[in-house]
Design goal:
16 helices
C-alpha cells in the first residue's frame, strides 16, 4: 500500500493525465497507507470527470479505507451531489457504515445543508441507521441546532425517540442544550416528554436544572409529569422552589403533574 502518482492526479482532477497513466497500466484500485484509493482522492474535491474515468476503468466504488470510509462517505461529507449520484449509479452503497457506524446520511446531517440531506433521503438513505454510539442522523441534527434538517428527517420516516448508548433521545439532547424550537418540533412529532436517559434524567429535569421556565411549560403543555419531590435536590432546587418555578400563568388545568394537580 503506497501513494501513487495516480492518487495525486485524481486529487487535482487532471482527466487527460489520469487517462494516460491508466493506459500505461496504473492501478485504479491501488491504496495508500490510509487505505484510500484514487477514487477517494477524486471524491474529496468532488471531481466528476476524473471520478467517472476511474469508475469506467474499474475503480471499486465500495472500497473502504482504514476508517471504513468509502468514496461515497467522502462525497457526502463535502456535499458533492452530482458525484454522490454518479457513485450510486455505479453501485455504491448508500447506507455503508464506516468504523464508527456513520453512514453518508449521518455525516451529511451534521453539515446544516437540508437540501442535500433531502436528496440523500430521496435516493433511498435510511434515516434510522445509528452510529456505534447509538446516535442517529436526527440526534446529529439536534446537536447542531438544525431544526430544518430535523424536520426533513422526521418527515422522511426518522424515529422520533431513538436512544443513544446513554439512553438519550433527540428530545433529551434538545432539552439539555435548551433548544426550544427543536424541542417543540420533536414534541409535535410525538416525542415522549417523560422519557429518561440511562442516568434517570428526563427533559423536565434539564428544564428545571437550567431554570428554563419556557421549556418547562412547553413540556407540561405536551403532558409531561413534573414532581417537585423528585425534581427537588437533584436539580439544585428545593421542593418548594421547584413548585414555585413550575407555577406560572401558562399552566392550566390540562397540564398534569405526578401529583395530579395542575402546575403543582
Amino acid at each position: 500500500m503506497f501513494f501513487t502518482k495516480l492518487h495525486e492526479v485524481a486529487g487535482y482532477g487532471d482527466v487527460e493525465l489520469a487517462s494516460q497513466m491508466i493506459e500505461r497500466g496504473a492501478d485504479v484500485r491501488r491504496r495508500d497507507m490510509k487505505g484510500d484509493t484514487p477514487l477517494h482522492y477524486a471524491a474529496l474535491p468532488g471531481f466528476i470527470d476524473v471520478s467517472r474515468l476511474l469508475i469506467d476503468s474499474g475503480a471499486d466504488v465500495r472500497a473502504a479505507n482504514r476508517k471504513g470510509l468509502t468514496p461515497l462517505h467522502v462525497a457526502a461529507l463535502h456535499r458533492h451531489t452530482a458525484l454522490v449520484e454518479l457513485l450510486l449509479d455505479n453501485g455504491a452503497d448508500i447506507d455503508a457504515q464506516d468504523d464508527s457506524g456513520a453512514t453518508p446520511l449521518y455525516l451529511a446531517a451534521g453539515q446544516s445543508d437540508t437540501a442535500f440531506v433531502e436528496r440523500l433521503l430521496r435516493l433511498g438513505a435510511d434515516p434510522n441507521l445509528a452510529s456505534k454510539e447509538g446516535a442517529t442522523p436526527l440526534h446529529l441534527a439536534v446537536f447542531w441546532h438544525d431544526a430544518e434538517t430535523a424536520a426533513t428527517l422526521l418527515d422522511s420516516g426518522a424515529v422520533v425517540d431513538p436512544r443513544d448508548d446513554g439512553g438519550n433521545t433527540p428530545l433529551s439532547w434538545a432539552a439539555n442544550q435548551q433548544i426550544l424550537p427543536l424541542a417543540s418540533l420533536l414534541l409535535r412529532h410525538g416525542a415522549d416528554p417523560d422519557i429518561s436517559s440511562a442516568d434517570g434524567a428526563t427533559p423536565m429535569f434539564w428544564a428545571v436544572r437550567n431554570r428554563n421556565r419556557e421549556l418547562a411549560h412547553l413540556l407540561l403543555s405536551h403532558g409531561a409529569l413534573a414532581s417537585p419531590e423528585q425534581l427537588g435536590g437533584s436539580t439544585g432546587m428545593g421542593v418548594e422552589e421547584v413548585r414555585a418555578f413550575l407555577a406560572a400563568p401558562e399552566a392550566d388545568a390540562s397540564q398534569r403533574t405526578a401529583e395530579g394537580s395542575a402546575g403543582a
